[in-house]
Structures are given as structure tokens and as C-alpha cells.
Write a structure and sequence with these properties.
Structural class: alpha+beta
Distance between the termini: 33 Å
Number of strands: 9
Number of domains: 1
Largest sheet: 5 strands, antiparallel
Mean pLDDT: 94
Shape: globular
Strand content: 15-25%
Number of helices: 3
Helix content: 10-25%
Radius of gyration: 18 Å
Low-confidence stretches: none
């Protein structure tokens, strides 16, 4: 990034639009979910002129579990879109992130949580000459009553493929096997299991 790059680009954000909101517009999640939508739009525009990857997971998969005395907050990786160069990477943050993968041992040592499942999600990447990256599945069992908050996208609209590639699989949120909305807050009881399945990336080519 440098001034020369910005010299070739003009950015207009009229007052009141999505990226220049005015009170009382809601602006929560601008840096985690809204920014992902903007990246998708920009890359689709650039795809008309140059090679870019297919759409990636397009969400940060924000997971918050806690009480008045402790909080677990993590953003989960998913699939990156495939490109002319090859398959998309699996289980990565796409577009933006400043968070690292929390080791299972550290999480279970510090908090009343148990990781029941944590792996790549087979079949979640879009098909094509090059396959989209795979999403993740992470299941957490709470060991005491707590509150869950989820702020996730790409649960209804799949990450698109490019040049004939297939779409990646949308993500899912589950509580004890029952589907949850993309954005929700729920009370948890000891023993409840929260599962987040993150989206796969879009495929490239036929």
C-alpha cells in the first residue's frame, strides 16, 4: 500500500450510505462483517478486469461465550476462494483478521469449556477445476451456565465461484444440534454444545 496505488483509485462515500453512516444508523460489526461484504463487492468488480480468487468465506464467524467473570471470544477461519493458480487454502481467515488460532489445550486450561470437535469440514469447498478452500467445524461444550453471542454471515448466501466454479457451502450455527440464526444471543446451561460450521470458498473454472 502506498500513495501511488491510491493515486489510481477514486473513492466516493456519500453521506448516509452504508460506509458513511449517520446517526441513528446501526454500525455494529462494521469492521468484521460489513467490511467482508465490501471486499466481496470490490473483488467482483476487479474480476471483470483481472484475475482474482473466487469468493472466500466472507465472514469472521464471531463467537462469544461468557459470564460476568470470564469471556471467550474468537473469530474462526474458513475457506478461501480458488483461483487460476490452484485450490483455495482451507481453514484460514479471509480478507481481514488480526486474531490467531487458540490452541485447544490453552482454551480448556483457562476456561470452563471443552472442545468436542475441531477439524476441516469435508465437502464445504466449491467444486471446479480448482476447489475452494474448506471451512472448519468447531464444537464447544460449556461446563457451567453462560451466555452465547454469535455474529456471523454467509449462512444463507453461499460464497460464489468464478469462471464456472461452484459456490462454497454456507456456514451453520447449532446449539445441541438445533440450528441457530446467523446473529443471536442465547442463554446456555452446563453441558450445552455450541457448534459453528464455517463457510467454504468458491471454486474456480470448469
Amino acid at each position: 500500500m502506498n500513495a501511488g496505488l491510491y493515486g489510481a483509485v477514486s473513492i466516493r462515500a456519500p453521506a448516509g450510505c452504508l460506509v458513511d453512516a449517520r446517526a441513528p444508523s446501526a454500525v455494529v460489526a462494521g469492521n468484521v462483517e460489513t467490511s467482508q461484504r465490501i471486499a466481496d463487492v470490490v473483488l467482483l468488480a476487479l474480476a471483470q478486469a483481472t484475475d482474482v480468487p473466487a469468493q472466500g468465506q466472507g465472514t469472521m464467524n464471531n463467537v462469544v461465550i461468557g459470564t460476568s467473570t470470564w469471556t471467550y471470544y474468537e473469530t474462526l477461519g474458513g475457506g478461501q476462494g480458488a483461483s487460476r493458480r490452484g485450490d483455495g487454502p482451507s481453514g484460514v481467515h479471509v480478507g481481514m483478521s488480526n486474531t490467531l488460532n487458540t490452541p485447544v489445550e490453552a482454551l480448556e486450561l483457562e476456561l470452563p469449556l471443552r472442545v468436542e470437535r475441531y477439524e476441516l469440514l469435508d465437502g464445504s469447498g466449491g467444486g471446479g477445476r480448482h476447489r475452494g478452500g474448506l471451512g472448519l467445524v468447531r464444537s464447544l461444550r460449556v461446563l457451567e451456565p453462560a451466555t452465547l453471542s454469535l455474529l456471523t454471515d454467509r449462512r444463507r448466501h453461499a460464497p460464489l465461484g468464478l469462471d464456472g466454479g461452484g459456490a462454497g457451502r454456507p456456514g451453520r450455527n447449532l446449539l445441541n444440534g438445533e440450528e441457530l440464526p446467523a446473529k443471536t444471543t442465547r442463554a446456555l446451561q452446563a453441558g450445552d454444545v455450541v457448534t459453528v460450521e464455517t463457510p467454504g470458498g468458491g471454486g474456480w473454472g470448469v
